[in-house]
Amino acid sequence: MQAIGLIETRGLTPALEALDAMCKAANVRLASFKRVGSGLVTVIVEGDVASVAAAVEAGAAAYQKTCGQLVSSNVIPRPHPDLARMLI
Question: Which intervals hold domain BMC (predicted)?
Fold first, then answer.
């Protein structure tokens, strides 16, 4: 795995919309989908660094267009194996 991208949203439907935009925008795959609590949902994708960065940007834009302020997003290039194992 070369990179992990994360987007945290408020609600399941906006998370699915962001995930759809992420997968359509770049060559990434869903690595994990977590309900954090208090309505927060985290979508985690993986792929090469450029694809993950493009996917996170597209997912954040799709979320902000429909729902407003994004809770959080991040791209982690070359994650440590322990971190990747914890997230995925």
Answer: 3-88
